Amino acid sequence: MNTLHKELTRTVLYLDGISVSFDGFKALNDLSFVVEPGEMRAIIGPNGAGKTTMMDVITGKTRPDVGSALFAGQHDLTKLDEADIAQLGIGRKFQRPTVFESHTVRDNIVLSLAGKRSVFDTLFARAREEEADRIDRVLDTIRLADRAGMMAADLSHGQKQWLEIGMLLAQDPSLLLVDEPVAGMTDAETVQTATLLKEIARDHSVVVVEHDMSFVQDLGVMVTVLHEGSVLAEGSLDHVSADERVIDVYLGR
Amino acid sequence: MISGRFLRLTGTSGLILLACLLAAAIYVPVANQFIDPGSPFHVNTASVVVFGKYLCFAMLALSIDLVWGYCGILSLGHGAFFALGGYAMGMHLMREIGPRGVYGNPILPDFMVFLNWESLPWFWYGFDMFWFAMVMVVLVPGLLAFVFGFLAFRSRVTGVYLSIITQAMAFALMLAFFRNEMGFGGNNGLTDFKDVLGFDLQADSTRIGLYLLSIAALAVMFLICRAIVLSRLGKVLIAVRDAESRTRFIGYRVEHYKLFVFTVSAMMAGVAGALYVPQVGIINPGEFAPANSIEAVIWVAVGGRGTLVGAVIGGIGVNLAKSYFTGALPEIWLFALGGLFVVVTLFMPKGILGLISHWRRRQPPPEPAAETGAPSSTAAEERA
Ligand SMILES: Nc1ncnc2c1ncn2[C@@H]1O[C@H](COP(=O)(O)OP(=O)(O)OP(=O)(O)O)[C@@H](O)[C@H]1O
Ligand SMILES: [Mg+2]
């Protein structure tokens, strides 16, 4: 028991036996999944495998029917709401890029900065010196420093994806969930994004969902294959792509 | 000297608006009192009252724009907060009539005597004191908005569903206030007011005073709204409007923000109603009518949703047009209003103000000239 407890507290994310059903359809089926501190993990799997639903469960958007979800071994994610979970340190990038279109790139980052989030804190908030430094660093990291004053609505699709990653960084979460970051990107942008995520993974735990195999190859991390709501295979990309069942349901198509 | 900070608070169009309000504050009373009634520049007292009314409508529009334009909450029940503020004021004015009513009862308003009530209902206590009534003017609408918003936003009711329940709230209140047993004068509402703080409500000077007070209140409300939308909280509101779930996932408690802005907005609407009642001399359950709330939303849409100045322009402008059309072409006014709304939503998503700034961007603007124009009007503003 004691050793199990130690095991648990060492994990960043611990999902055990999670099931979610929508009108009788099991989107997640007895899913178990663990992320270690500092780890970057890629998740692949066919459309409808439950990848996004898993992120919904972790971030409090969807409640599982059964199963447990622990963050840092102690916080029960199934009991908290989105804002609580975000404040605990889990950040999320949506599958469809979602930024605040009528704010500038800079203001998008300002709003995401780690800090107090209550109504009265924000009503009386003043821009602070050290904030400006952090914002500039984030903008440099996501390569949008020269577009800081632009409306987010006017960014290209790829830039919006980066801005959303930048918003995640500004939040400074300990775990980042990134859903299809290179969807709709050019090849050059895809390569840059891989570099960016590897940079981020140096001091964060990251879970990346992606269909783009060359991108996953670029990341060079452990891969989990989801299928019909549960884990089908786990291991290096070479290992899972040699797996018969994975080829059958996903790679072989 | 005007500071850059003040200009940043008002914005250029806001500064123009404040200058116009200042000009109206000076011109109308002077024209009413000192210009010969035969002259075309004379403003008769009835018109002063009408302008005062429109200023109250502009405040209502402003309060709607704050929640709708900046936080995406389309309230179709703001007329109810306006009416509640109006009733709180009306109750004070009733108590101030004292023994001068038709039945001469020093405590009970006429309608209660008429209904053979023995004593004042508990919720009428305190309204004889002006300060108490003023507190109620903001507290009652604020409290209702807080409770309503707490329940609605916590259950994440949004969009059309929220609009429908705000409308239902206004409708329910209207039905309740129509009932005599509620103790607010039923059908007839509250009327036959005599004076406020000892000033005769029929006197020219009181009417001008109320008009000036309305201008001041509108200016202050405008500045409060600006301060809110320019703050970081204002940025969060816009974020909620544009991408509510994104805002949640970066850690903001969206329902708290909505609750804050909805409550503040309801209080503003209450103040608008309180200034309206002594100027029109009556408040009745008709003010709760759902159509009133919808009309106010149209003013905002026409003036420019999400632009505070636009809301003021819409509130005053549409009502000016209404009074012209109801006089000239009474049959078509309602169609004109409906048509206006359709045209605006289809062709001018940002309303009149959006159209103006669109034009200005298209012609290379003589910016420096506009710049020199501003300081002189601001200097005047500061003296006020
Ligand atoms: N809110 C919902 N209501 C009903 N069904 C849902 C809901 N959310 C997801 N589903 C269903 O659950 C299944 C898993 O969806 P999910 O979005 O998690 O898949 P995914 O692995 O992210 O797929 P993709 O690669 O296409 O993004 C799908 O069949 C989807 O239709
Ligand atoms: Mg998905």
Give the overall shape of chain A, derived from the CA principal axes.
globular
The outline of chain B comes out as globular
Count of DSSP E strands of chain B? 4
Distance between the termini of chain B: 13 Å
Beta-strand residue fraction of chain A: 15-25%
User: How does the major sheet of chain A shape up?
Assistant: 6 strands, mixed
Structural class label of chain A: alpha/beta
GO molecular function, one term (chain B): branched-chain amino acid transmembrane transporter activity
Subcellular location (chain B): Cell membrane
Protein name (chain B): Amino acid/amide ABC transporter membrane protein 2, HAAT family
Organism (chain B): Thalassobaculum litoreum DSM 18839
Short description:
The complex is a heterodimer of chains A (253) and B (384). By secondary structure, chain A is α/β, with parallel strands linked by helices.
Description:
The complex is a heterodimer of chains A (253) and B (384). Chain A is α/β, with parallel strands linked by helices and 253 residues long. Chain A has helices spanning 2-10, 51-58, 82-88, 105-112, 119-123, 129-141, 157-171, 187-201, 213-219, 237-241, 244-251, and strands at 13-22, 25-35, 40-44, 66-71, 75-76, 90-93, 175-179, 205-209, 222-227, 230-235. In chain A, the strands form 2 sheets. In chain A, strands 6-7-8-3-9-10 form a 6-stranded mixed beta sheet, with helices on both faces. A 4-stranded antiparallel beta sheet of chain A has the order 2-1-4-5, covered by helices on one side. In chain A, strand 9 (222-227) and strand 10 form a beta hairpin. The longest helix of chain A has 15 residues, at 157-171. The mean pLDDT of chain A is 90. Chain B is globular and about 65 Å long. Mean pLDDT of chain B is 90; it is low at 365-384. The relative contact order of chain B is 0.17. Chain B is mainly alpha-helical. In chain B, helix 3 packs antiparallel against helix 11 (254-280). Chain B has helices spanning 4-10, 12-34, 45-71, 78-97, 110-114, 130-154, 159-178, 204-230, 232-242, 244-249, 254-280, 290-303, 308-328, 333-347, 351-362, 367-383, and strands at residues 190-191, 195-196, 199-200, 282-283. The longest helix of chain B is centred in the N-terminal third of the chain and has 27 residues, at 45-71. Chain B starts with a helix and ends with a helix. In chain B, the strands form 2 sheets. In chain B, strands 1-4 form a two-stranded antiparallel sheet. In chain B, strands 2-3 form a two-stranded antiparallel sheet. In chain B, 72% of the residues lie in helices and 2% in strands. Chain B has 16 helices and 4 strands. In chain B, strand 2 and strand 3 (199-200) form a beta hairpin. The chains are: A alpha/beta (253), B mainly alpha (384). The interface between A and B is medium-sized, with 29 and 23 residues. Magnesium ion is lined by residues 51-52, 95, 179 of chain A.
